[in-house]
Design a protein that fits this description.
321 residues; Spore Coat Polysaccharide Biosynthesis Protein SpsA, Chain A; 2 domains
């Protein structure tokens, strides 16, 4: 079919859906089945961007097969290795064209049926729509740990997000442009979006238990992610370390003065050796903790000055690529 004068070959969609994928071969067929009806019912133009984050289980083949069936609305970005969820989303932001950009995971723990609620909140005039999970189907210890970490993180960063771990979120094009200008080697997308937002809001969404595949976030990755979040958006950990050092130094000085006076009054004694050893081990623990915090910031500086690419795209499967 010939294009009419002034008609765009691929007009910009109103909604861009960005979905990072890492070894989700078992979940993808169910995601495809539920996702398209939701987007079609919106009655708006849309595009779906899948970012394959170095999958080794055949997820890319499923994504490409799905794209062949829906070439006009589906685009696939293939990474040259595994660079992490937030870098995959960042790459999706770089390629997105929609007025509203929505992020979600591929594991179906946040139902695609919640997408219209995010769009409605954006239509109400908000530039960032966050979400928090109600009725979470996670293990009890994980829910408690998440609640504690969310509280600590809010106190440190001042961002006041109710649920940092929920990735079903919506952003306006202006917020996406600001995020794209940020060249940080490591970042946390929901916090960065909230930082730039002028009229943010949060809505409750449902949460379901993972039915297919396994979680890609182990304990170490969760700790690593929270370190990135805290050190990337606040200097409070460094300031706390400074104040803690001053407090310990003051208490140590007072303790030395006490021991000096006691020696003059009571005389030399061999008692209290184990107490002093315990005090010494305690101070060593504090010192190691402080060095670790400082090391986190130094490590971030090291990553920034190297200026290595944050991610490497092997290929973009797009009619315009």
């Amino acid at each position: 079919m010939l294009l009419q004068a002034g008609q765009e070959r691929n007009p910009k969609p109103e909604i861009s859906l960005v979905i990072p994928v890492y070894n989700e071969r078992e979940s993808l067929p169910f995601l495809f089945e539920r996702l398209l009806p939701v987007l079609e019912e919106l009655g708006r133009s849309y595009e779906i961007l899948f970012i394959d984050d170095g999958s080794v289980d055949g997820s890319l083949a499923l994504l490409l097969a799905f794209r062949e069936e829906h070439r006009s609305t589906v685009r696939v970005i293939e990474f040259n290795g595994n660079f992490g969820q937030h870098m995959a989303i960042t790459a999706g932001f770089r390629c997105s064209r929609g007025r509203i950009v929505i992020t979600m995971d591929a594991d179906l723990q946040n139902p695609p049926e919640e997408i219209p609620n995010l769009v409605a909140a954006m239509d109400a005039g908000h530039d960032t729509v966050g979400t928090y999970r109600v009725g979470r189907r996670d293990p009890f210890f994980r829910k408690i740990a998440s609640k504690v970490i969310n509280g600590i993180t809010n106190r440190i960063t001042g961002l006041n997000l109710r649920d940092y771990g929920c990735m079903l979120r919506a952003y306006s094009g202006n917020i996406i442009a600001l995020i794209n200008e940020s060249a940080e080697s490591t970042t946390f997308i929901p916090a960065l979006g909230r930082k730039f937002s002028v009229s943010p809001t949060e809505i409750a969404i449902s949460h379901t238990e993972r039915e297919h595949g396994t979680s890609k976030y182990g304990l170490f990755k969760l700790i690593r992610l929270n370190f990135d979040l805290m050190t990337g958006f606040s200097l409070i950990p460094l300031q706390v370390v400074t104040m803690l050092g001053l407090l310990v130094a003051t208490l140590s000085l007072l303790f030395v003065a006490y021991l000096g006076v006691r020696r003059l009054v009571v005389g030399p004694e061999a008692e209290g050796v184990f107490t002093l050893m315990n005090v010494n081990f305690f101070l060593m623990g504090i010192t190691m903790f402080c060095v670790g915090i400082v090391g986190e910031y130094i490590g971030r500086i090291y990553q920034e000055v190297r200026r290595r690419p944050r991610f490497v795209i092997r290929k973009v499967y797009d009619d315009e690529a």
